[in-house]
Design goal:
two-stranded parallel sheet, 6 helices, 142 residues, globular, mainly alpha, single chain
């Protein structure tokens, strides 16, 4: 049984807000590959990078090994649970290096997509974790 399926876990951990997030996450919230918005990334990338640098002070290495075109699979090693910042940080770093038009999708938990900042994550390229979405993204050359 997953944490989302345990009776009352949201109520005990985060009250009504958490319960609302869990309900939204369970409802099959939709996020599509087409939700990614290069114009949004170009416009919001600089202030979001400034914010993430100040808040998390990330060290990013190895982006030169990511091909400029064609499919690539990058796997994060994060310890932040469902709401880890590495997804945002890597998306912003790759957009800065290769340009916001280079399609890059992040497989994300429904909890992130249902959160108050889920609309931002979707416009940055966050999509649900599932085989069909991952296959579609790789088939598009992302």
């Amino acid at each position: 049984m997953s944490d989302l399926e345990r009776p009352g876990i949201a109520r005990r951990t985060a009250g009504a807000f958490g319960a609302g997030l869990v309900r939204a996450a369970r409802s099959g919230l939709r996020a599509e590959l087409g939700d990614r918005d290069a114009t949004f990334i170009r416009r919001t990338g600089p202030p979001l990078r400034t914010l993430t640098r100040a808040w998390f002070r990330p060290t990013i290495r190895g982006l030169e090994h990511v091909p400029d075109a064609g499919p690539a699979l990058l796997v994060g090693n994060h310890s932040g649970g469902n709401l880890s910042p590495d997804t945002l940080i890597l998306a912003l770093a790759l957009a800065r290096r290769q340009g916001p038009e280079r399609e890059f999708f992040q497989l994300s938990e429904n909890l992130l997509l249902a959160s108050p900042w889920g609309h931002v994550a979707r416009r940055l390229g966050a999509v649900p974790v599932n085989w069909a979405t991952a296959s579609s993204a790789l088939a598009r050359g992302a």
